[in-house]
């Protein structure tokens, strides 16, 4: 492909730097090599995720039970929203490649239009990811963490999840959150959970149809549900902290490593999408101002397009390893 | 400027008239693959739960479909199909080799640690 942007007067001079064995311009080749190195960074993260998952293969959270929400709809819809996000990103990849194609034909207005759609797609994706994070951080049913750091969740007889808040019996004797103004000025305390383990335990005693579900995955691939006696005993002896939602310390859905990797990998990818949108906007304005029209080549659109497709490519893998496998 | 695109996909079985047409064709293909993944992910058919080389058959299907998607994104959206053989190999072979190596090392080690945990912290009793 003829992709030379500027002539340097060395064309055809083999020993003067005029030879282009790869028939790609410097900028495009460097974008490819950057992509290779960034792909290795992402592979490092995903492989580390795989490492931790293989390490705790018998108790890893089941993604279908974690990501079940769709904005504006109530109910249990695993995967639907993240499939929508994937489609949005692939769609914005298509408009990007259409912009590149229009650039090859020097059709400025078409490039502007397709770049605009690409930016919109990117923004929808980043927004969706923010919503996904918000939902994950907020949590839905709550759980109790044991002394050993395991997560105990509540289910009814039929295996449906039960929210902590629905059964906990308020004891009105709870501890006040420590603040700098009412205690040691150099010590901080995070927000206290809405319920204490004792309140949840009293609720469990009062609701004979509620059982405890542990992190362990049984032979059928489901989480193990304890018997009524085991449930009461487990919560009484080992319950330590009520957990609602997920953050870098605790995670109501299972091992906190899952939340750590989720925040880190989707966060790093989201940061790439964000920077991709910013770069796209810069190029978008350059196209409007006619920079590339005057330069006689829309190769810059092609280069930013490579980056944008790469972001899509990474998401395809994140989607598989976080949500499907 | 001459921009030649190779317009055939699936080893020449599907040929497109223009680059734009090819892009839409690839989009349709990628959408179908994603839809298959999502449907399999929601229903998780019991027949695909059998183990195959250390992993569920279903997971192998997901990984293979992902690599298929990655191939078409790289080849048709990133125009790898139109680059010279040398550039293509430089990028693809390097990445594929290093990523396979990394995955092998880390998953092997993860599986080993898991077996140490489950066997009461004794892997091999000498």
Describe the protein's architecture and organization.
The complex is a heterodimer of chains A (325) and B (126). Chain A is an alpha+beta fold. Chain A folds into 2 domains: 21-139 and 257-324, Up-down Bundle (Four Helix Bundle (Hemerythrin (Met), subunit A)); 143-244, no CATH class. Chain A is 55% helix and 7% strand. A 5-stranded antiparallel beta sheet of chain A has the order 4-3-2-1-5. In chain A, strand 1 and strand 2 (151-155) form a beta hairpin. In chain A, helix 3 (80-104) packs antiparallel against helix 10 (299-324). Chain B has 2 domains: 1-82; 84-126. With 126 residues, chain B is mostly helical. In chain B, the strands form 2 sheets. Chain B has a two-stranded antiparallel ribbon with strand order 1-2. Chain B has a two-stranded antiparallel sheet with strand order 3-4. In chain B, helix 1 packs antiparallel against helix 2. Chains A and B meet through helix 1, helix 3 and helix 10 of A and helix 1, helix 2 and helix 3 of B.
- Averaged pLDDT of chain B, please? 87
* Most extensive chain interface and residues per partner: A-B, 59 and 54 residues
- Count of beta strands of chain A: 5
Strand neighbour order, sheet with most strands of chain B: 1-2
Main sheet makeup of chain B? 2 strands, antiparallel
Q: In percent terms, what proportion of residues of chain B is strand?
A: 5-15%
Looking at the structure, the CATH topology of the largest domain in chain A is: Four Helix Bundle (Hemerythrin (Met), subunit A)
Assembly context of the chains: heterodimer
Average of per-residue pLDDT values of chain A? 88
Residue stretches of chain A low in confidence (pLDDT < 50, at least 5 long) are none
**What is the H-and-E element order of chain A?**
HHHHEEHHEEHEHHH
CATH architecture label name of the largest domain in chain A: Up-down Bundle
